[in-house]
Amino acid sequence: MDAISVTVERGGTVEAIHEVHVVSSAGERRGDAALVCHLRSSMKPLQAIPFVDGYDDLATDEIAIACASHDAEPAQLAAVRKVLTRAGVGVDDLENGVQDGRPDGKLGHNCSGKHAGMLAACSAHGWPLHPYRDPAHPLQQRIAELVPGAPGIDGRGLPTIAMSLAEMAELFTTIPRPIVAAMRAHPELIGGSRADDTELMQALPGWVAKRGAEGLFCALSPDGVGWVFKVADGATRGLRPALGQVLGIDAFRAVPVRNSLGEVVGSIR
Question: Where in the sequence is the domain holding 85, given as residue range(s)?
Answer without folding.
Answer: 4-268
